[in-house]
Amino acid sequence: MVAAKKSTADDSSAAMAAVPVAAAAGPGGLAVRSGEEPWTAAEVADARAGLTAEADRLRGEISATEAALSGLMRDSGDGAGDDEADTGSKNVTREHEMALATNAREMLYQTERALGRLEAGTYGLCETCAHPIGKARMQVFPRATLCVDCKQKQERRL
């Protein structure tokens, strides 16, 4: 695991201003920010393996959550004799399982997109400005699609 140096938003902004639009690609064919070491074949393989393992884990989680949700939906019709607290508890549990399934599906979608970008050679490029996101950021958050500056702009708009 690579330890990334923590920096302030000001450091990130200053560093991003110096990043050329077309950054050099390493042997792995992936762009890196100015001053970063190129991706090695082993690092690319590690990123691919990590994303693939995460996708497999999420598929299992989705399957288990859907099975639990199916059971809850089947049992929801049998509410005869339940008091309000039991009915409310079942509703909360069902909504919680639905939220877990939705979250896992979204994470799987993001993970599969990251794998697609890795295969296409666009992994690590910001989807908004096309600048390199940063190798260290990608190693910590492999599903990142935006550089720090674009992510900050997006969060300010929300």
Helix and strand arrangement:
Blueprint: H1 9-17, H2 41-76, H3 84-120, H4 135-140, H5 148-157
Helix pairs in contact: 2-3
Q: What is the helix content? A: 55-70%
User: What is the count of distinct domains?
Assistant: 1
Overall SS class: mainly alpha
The CATH superfamily name is: DksA, coiled-coil domain
- Termini gap: 33 Å
- The secondary-structure element order is HHHHH
- Which shape, going by the Cα principal axes? elongated
- Number of H/I helices: 5
Q: Would you tell me the overall average pLDDT?
A: 81
State the low-pLDDT regions, or none: 1-24
CATH fold call: Four Helix Bundle (Hemerythrin (Met), subunit A)
Regarding CATH, which class? Answer: Mainly Alpha
Describe this structure as you would to a colleague.
The chain has 158 residues and is an all-alpha fold. It has one domain: Four Helix Bundle (Hemerythrin (Met), subunit A) (Up-down Bundle), CATH 1.20.120. The protein is 62% helix and 0% strand. The chain is built from 5 helices and no strands. Helix 2 runs antiparallel to helix 3. The longest helix has 37 residues. The N terminus is likely disordered.
What descriptors fit this protein?
158 residues, elongated, Four Helix Bundle (Hemerythrin (Met), subunit A), mainly alpha
Summarize the structure.
Helix content is 62%, strand content 0%.
